[in-house]
Every structure is written in C-alpha cells, then in structure tokens.
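[INFO] parsing input record for Sugar ABC transporter permease
[DEBUG] input buffer:
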Amino acid sequence: MRRQHLRGRLDFKYSPYLYISPFFILFALVGLFPLIYTFVVSINDWDLLGGAGDWVGLKNYQAELASPLFWNSLFNTFSIFLLSAIPQLVVATFIAAMLDQNIRAKTFWRMSVLVPYVVTPVAVTLIFSTAFDEKYGLINNLLGALNLDTIAWKTDVFPSHMAIATMVNWRWTGYNALILLAAMQAVPRELHESAAIDGAGMIRRFFSITLPSIRPTMIFVIITATIGGLQIFTEPKLFNPSSSVPGGPDRQYQTTVLYLWDLAFNRGDFGRASAVAWMLFLIIIVIGVINFLISGTIASSSDKRGPRRIPGRKAKRIKSHPSGSLRESANDE
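[DEBUG] output buffer:
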C-alpha cells in the first residue's frame, strides 16, 4: 500500500513533465540547436564549400551593419511588412465580423475564405507574378484598356512592394479571419443582446464589446503576422524568376531573408549569412516584445477604466401593477 501510494504521488507530480517532454525534445533538436549552431557559424569565417575557417568574432556583424545591401533589404522587409500586415489584419477583422453574423450557408463562406491558404505559396506566387507582368500581365492590360498608364510592377520600388504585399494578403487574410472568428464565437451572446436592448447599434457593439473581448486573440494574430511578415522569402524569390539578381535587378524588393539566402548559397559566405540571420532574429524578438508591452498597456488601462454603460435609448423594465396587470416604465438613471 505504501509503494502504491508513493507511486501514485510520483505519477501525479512528474507525469505531466513526461507528457510534454516530446515537444521540448523536438524543439531542442530542430529549433534550439540550429539557433545556437547558427551563432557559432556567425562568429567564424565559414565558407559554403570549405567549411569552418578562422574565428573572426563580431567582424561579420560589423561588416553587415556597414553594408548598404543589408540596410536596403531591411527597408524592403519593413515596407512589404507594413503594406501587408496592416491591411491584412483590418480586412481579416471585417471578414470575421461578417461571418459572425446570422448569414446563410455559414460553413460554405467560412471554408471559402480558407481556400487561398490551402494553395501552395509557389503556385500563388507564379499566378500573381504572371498577373503583374509589365508587358503581358492582366493588371497592365486592364489599365491599358482603361487608357491609363501601365505600372512597372517589377522595376519600381513601391509598385513591386505593393504587388508582393497583395500576394501575402491574398493568402493569409482568410486564415487570420478564421482565427478571429473563433474568438468572436466565444463572446457571450448575452452581452450583445443587452447592448442591443440599450439601443447600441451593430458598429457600436463591435467596438465596445467584440474588440475588447477578443484582445488576447488579436495580440496573438498581430505577433504571428509580425513574425511571418519579417521572414518573407517565397514571394519575393519567385516574383521575377527571370531576374539574375534575387530581389530584382536593383534589389528593389530583396528582403532580409532573401539577402541572407543570396549570401549563403550564391556567394558561399555562411558566416555573414548567419550573422544576418541572428540580427533578424533579434529584431523580431524586439518587435514582438514591443507589441506585447503595448498590448498589455492598452489592456491594463482598459481594465482600470472599468466597464462602461453603452449609451442609447433608455432601457425599459417591467413593473407589476397592483391590479395584477403588467406595465412598462422607463428606467431613470
């Protein structure tokens, strides 16, 4: 009996760690070890074919911080990220709010917004690359039919960023919309019904009830969109396959991940490529922490203000008449 009791205590105390250990073991093998190994490579003169060379310390980092190509790639990354993330989150929130309404064929519409996410990124990029072709693309043909000037989608900086951001938005908007929709479905319907009785319209209920209730999910979506947006690679890599330089002839849409890929596999400089990878990793961590702190500050300030009564028509309450009949009276405050 004492052995069984001891075994039960050990099972209750340590078995949860055993159950979650596969994830941490797998993370250590495919996540933590490559991260540490990349840092080791970044402080050495590491060649693609020759392997490890001399220890150079932080010279690879210094060389990249002084390189205009690195800062150009960083500018392109943030430009495409802002052009894709902000409209993507706004449109995803709007679509989720529409799908949360009592509409017909809910399942059909909810599955339809997920179709772009199912399509492989390579197929999406090739389709949009053809559509944004400067000579025979669909977009420029439509502009020409309307007697408008065609746009150099693959030559100029801003149009190329817009084209790549359009690809990202098309693929990820529906995915984020379904995540936000799941959070909206968890908001108690009694809150909306009470606000509707108080006279609040649909838009007021959305900003006063829905958005504050899904704040944790919104923070998650913002952070994941930030991480994915700063690591964009496939879209700019395949946007112009005919270009000999990754990211356009003048590197006008070469992102940071595409730049480190060029350093590693075209120039064979694994040391500097690893340094770029680690600097991008630190930038993503800093931006993620800033997003978390800003979101936490907004949440705490909202909690301190406390719940607000939604203004509207005066609610009515039912009073019992002494004679037994019921009558309505305004709720005076």
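[INFO] The beta strands are 316-320, 326-330.
[INFO] shutting down worker
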